[in-house]
Amino acid sequence: MVMTAALAAILCCMAGGARGKAETVVMTEVSDTERTSEADQNLETEEAEMGLTVTVNGVQFKAEFEKNAAVDALKEKLADGELTLTLTDYSGFEKVGSFGFSLPTENRQTTTKSGDIVLYNGSQLVIFYGSNSWSYTRLARISDLTDWEKALGRGDAEVVLSLAE
């Protein structure tokens, strides 16, 4: 709150007069720039802590986002609401499905492991329950793999992505 010296003096006198003794009131002026900077830091902290909820065939898992442009774009999509995809089993170590839209890619040769969530070809979501080496853009990683493979089951899987609260 920005306060002028005159207003501070009036409040000081009122405070002293109401109690019958003089009192010193210390006012701190915070600039708009400082307020904006603090708000930006709080937002960045919230975004950094924001996770992903991955619901596989009705079983919820928490995942931690990677930091890249694809994740930023995915978070924007998820801010509008959850995404439901049908993923098909592929080669006995991953499930793959189309987002129906493209995300920016930052593909890197990587070896995946169970719980990794990646972007393939800019528009395909891939979740792993095994390992593979290929060029992907990393999106997230499941935090606790308890019952992960059981939830994925055999064949197709319904996967719902949403921002964790």
Total number of beta strands = 9
Distance from N terminus to C terminus (CA atoms, Å) equals 31 Å
Q: Please, what is the average pLDDT?
A: 81
Structural class: alpha+beta
Walk across the major sheet and give the strand order. Answer: 1-2-8-6-7-4-3-9
Rounded radius of gyration (Å): 25 Å
**What shape does the CA trace take?**
globular
Number of helical runs?
4
Unreliable runs: 1-48
- Note the beta-strand portion: 35-45%
- Determine the oligomeric state from the structure: single chain
Tags for this model:
165 residues, 8-stranded antiparallel beta barrel, disordered N terminus, globular, 30% helix, single chain, alpha+beta
Explain this structure to me?
There is one protein chain. The chain has 165 residues and is of the alpha+beta class. 30% of the residues lie in helices and 35% in strands. The chain contains four helices and nine strands. The protein has helices spanning 5-19, 32-49, 69-79, 148-152; strands at 52-56, 59-65, 83-90, 94-98, 108-112, 116-120, 124-128, 132-142, 157-163. The chain has an eight-stranded antiparallel barrel. A hairpin with a 3-residue loop joins β3 and β4 (94-98). The radius of gyration is 25 Å and the shape is globular. It starts with a helix and ends with a strand. The model is unreliable at 1-48 (pLDDT under 50).
